[in-house]
Amino acid sequence: MFEGQFFDNINSENLPHIVEIVGRSNLTDSEQILVSLNDYTKTLLPLTAAFLGIGSDGHTASLFPRFEELFFNPNLFFRVDRPSEPFSRISVSANVITETPQIFFLVSGSEKQSVMRTILEIPNKKDILPVQKILRKAKGKIVFLCDREALAF
């Protein structure tokens, strides 16, 4: 099924774009990297698919609980500084994700049981988790690919 939905549809007219942000780049300042990333990726929109994970706290794409004011950021990418971490993260705006026609969540591990239970058993109540905000506003197809441990409840 997975192969039929994706790999069979790749041809010379719709090759995937791989964006290398740091690696070979000479940019070292996080603000320069963000400006470059935002400028370059505008040419790649709209996305055709997004592959995302879900954290045990319900975050996805570095969209964390208690940072909801940043989710629907006007920039495509933005910096997230969490007091509990000694580093910055770069997140993609929820606007980009929710406009994507196909969103795939790859979920594994027993530590994700609580999150998956909340998603599946409380879908119509208030958005409790960051991922639920994405699910509620998504305009495209959503697919969850989970291992047994993530759904063992």
State the share of residues found in helices, binned by percent: 25-40%
What percent of residues are in strands? 15-25%
Outline: globular
What structural class do the secondary elements suggest? alpha/beta
C-alpha-based Rg, rounded: 16 Å
Contiguous helical run count = 6
Could you give the order of strands across the largest sheet? 1-4-5
Biggest sheet character: 3 strands, parallel
Distance between the termini: 25 Å
How many strand elements? 5
Strand and helix order:
HHEHEEHEHHE
In round numbers, the mean pLDDT is: 84
Oligomer: single chain
Uncertain stretches of 5 or more adjacent residues: none
Overview of this structure, please?
The protein contains six helices and five strands, in the order ααβαββαβααβ. With 153 residues, it is α/β, with parallel strands linked by helices. The strands form two sheets. The protein has a three-stranded parallel β-sheet with strand order 1-4-5, with no helix packed on it. A hairpin with a 6-residue loop joins strand 2 and strand 3. The model has no long low-confidence stretch (mean pLDDT 84).
